[in-house]
Amino acid sequence: MSIYDSIGHVLQLDVARKADFGYFLTDGTEDVLLHRNEAQQDLELDDKVEVFLYTDSQGRIAATTTIPKITVGEYEWAEVSDVKPGLGVFLDIGIQKDMLLGEEDLPVHRSVWPQTGDLLYITLRVNRNNRIYVKLATDPIIEENSVKATRADFNKSIHGYIYRTAKVGSWIFTAEGYKGFIHESQRKVEPRLGEKVEGRIIDVKEDGTINVSLLPRKEEALDVDAEKILSVLAERNGAMPYWDKSMPEEIQNKFQLSKAAFKRALGRLMKEGKVYQEEGWTYTKRDE
């Protein structure tokens, strides 16, 4: 295997020559430069050194003694370091040069592109011009690296990262190693590719994969909805022209709630003695 065939891989080479700016390494046939700032220690002629080969910004083969966890064929999580519209997103694999995930491999809608700090499960690929690019993990790769959930995991809280996104739903790889699906009805907004999300397991399939909901549990949702109502009342000095017989459209526009959710939250607040209704209005109950 020639040095060109080893781009994106780790291999052992010999120090053939030294220069002020670095070392020329050889496999016995071809040479490659290890720049001095890419060497973790001083080297001598004929030393054997383990390096990772990559292509620099000019397309030249270069070596580094910093060995990344992600190499061609090896998958691992990497953090998004930069986003460049027209190019794609760059990821930090642990060496000085960040790696590019091209725009053509990203979602069509930029609103679900990864942002700086998001994590993607990736490997590297080398194109015909010997340049290295990022390759996202596909479903079979996620499946191969996942563990199976059991029925005992039902309703457990989980967190993980989105590895695939579509209008119908999002696919998640959890911290436990579960492969999961989030149907569009189980999320308020479509998560970004690479975004960390928290949810709960709402189904465990026979194959050990899971269905996940990002929506709050009913009790948590009730708390949030009740807070929305109290917030509007506070803004209006304790009185608002909305009650349990208001039109669904009015409720949706003002509170972003369905009428059923509004009535549940309002009923709870009335039961707790925090609000009362009178002639089409809702009032905050004042302490006597």
TrEMBL record:
InterPro entries, per the entry: CvfB_fam (IPR014464), CvfB_S1_2nd (IPR048588), CvfB_S1_3rd (IPR048587), CvfB_S1_st (IPR039566), CvfB_WH (IPR040764), NA-bd_OB-fold (IPR012340), S1_domain (IPR003029), WH-like_DNA-bd_sf (IPR036388)
Domain spans labelled S1 motif: 6-66, 153-215
GO molecular function annotations of the record: nucleic acid binding
PANTHER family reported for this sequence: CONSERVED VIRULENCE FACTOR B
Family listed: Belongs to the CvfB family.
Protein name in UniProt: S1 motif domain-containing protein
Originating species: Niallia endozanthoxylica
